[in-house]
Amino acid sequence: MNKDQIAGRATDIKGQVKEAAGKLVDSPKLQGEGLADQAVGKTQAKVGDAKEAVKKAIDKI
């Protein structure tokens, strides 16, 4: 795993927690922040996944 994968997944989890907390306290703003964090985290993790795939492909050569 590379740093983008780790950071992305951590941000995604942080977003899930924020979203759940927002639902718990009935805060649409907090829910929105959580959803935004999840989107950022998933995107960053996908970038990390792509980097890892390229690295593996190069290692096979």
UniProtKB/TrEMBL annotation:
Q: Which domain of life is it from?
A: Bacteria
Domain CsbD-like: where?
A: 4-56
Matching Gene3D superfamilies, A to Z? YjbJ (1.10.1470.10)
User: InterPro entries of this UniProt entry?
Assistant: CsbD (IPR008462), UPF0337_stress_rsp (IPR050423), YjbJ_sf (IPR036629)
State the similarity comment: Belongs to the UPF0337 (CsbD) family.
User: Under what name is this protein listed?
Assistant: Uncharacterized protein YjbJ (UPF0337 family)
Q: Which organism is it from?
A: Acidovorax soli
